Amino acid sequence: MMSSELLSSEQAARRLGISVPTLYDWLCQSDAGAFAIRGESVTIAYYQGGQRGQGRIKIETQEVERLQEFMRVRPRPVRERRPPTMRQHYPGIYVELGNPAGLE
User: Fold this and answer.
1) pLDDT digits over 41-82, tens only?
2) Cβ neighbours of residue 16 under 8 Å, at least 6 residues apart?
3) Strand partners for 7
4) pLDDT digit string, tens, across residues 14-49
5) 5: nearest Cα among 60, 64, 79
6) Long-range pairs for 64-67 at CB < 8 Å and ≥24 separation?
7) Looking at residue 69, what DSSP letter applies?
8) Contact predicate 60/45, CB 8 Å
9) CA atoms of 92 and 53, how far apart (whole Å)
10) How far, in Å, CA of 8 to CA of 57, rounded?
């Protein structure tokens, strides 16, 4: 298994292009299972030291790179749509539409 450098929350936020409070919000949402990037559910793996888990947060560089990939915008080809068709029949109407009895 490859070893990865551990980044502080400040370094990780800088690499992601977000503020540190935003990173903390993302981690909180991830812990609750409610975090999504570009509509895709994402969980963030991180380390938190301290005797009761209240220490400094550390994130591996690989995890930051994975989050960057989720944030990457990839152009999607525009799907061609068929033009709308003119309906000659309407549901529940069984007679020809138009001027009745040729009245003008």
Assistant:
1) 999 999 998 887 788 999 999 999 999 999 999 888 888 888
2) 23, 64, 67, 68, 71
3) 59
4) 999 999 999 999 999 999 999 999 999 999 999 998
5) 60
6) 64/7, 64/12, 64/15, 64/16, 67/16, 67/37, 67/42
7) H
8) yes
9) 68
10) 6
**CB-CB contact of 60 with 6 (8 Å):** yes
Euclidean distance between CA atoms 43 and 31, whole angstroms: 7
Q: For the chain, what percentages of helix, strand and coil (3-state, to nearest 5) are there?
A: 35, 10, 55
Nearest-angstrom CA–CA distance, 8 and 82: 52
Query: Beta strand 40-41 with 36-37: parallel, antiparallel or unpaired?
Result: antiparallel
The answer to whether 16 touches 64, Cβ cutoff 8 Å, is yes
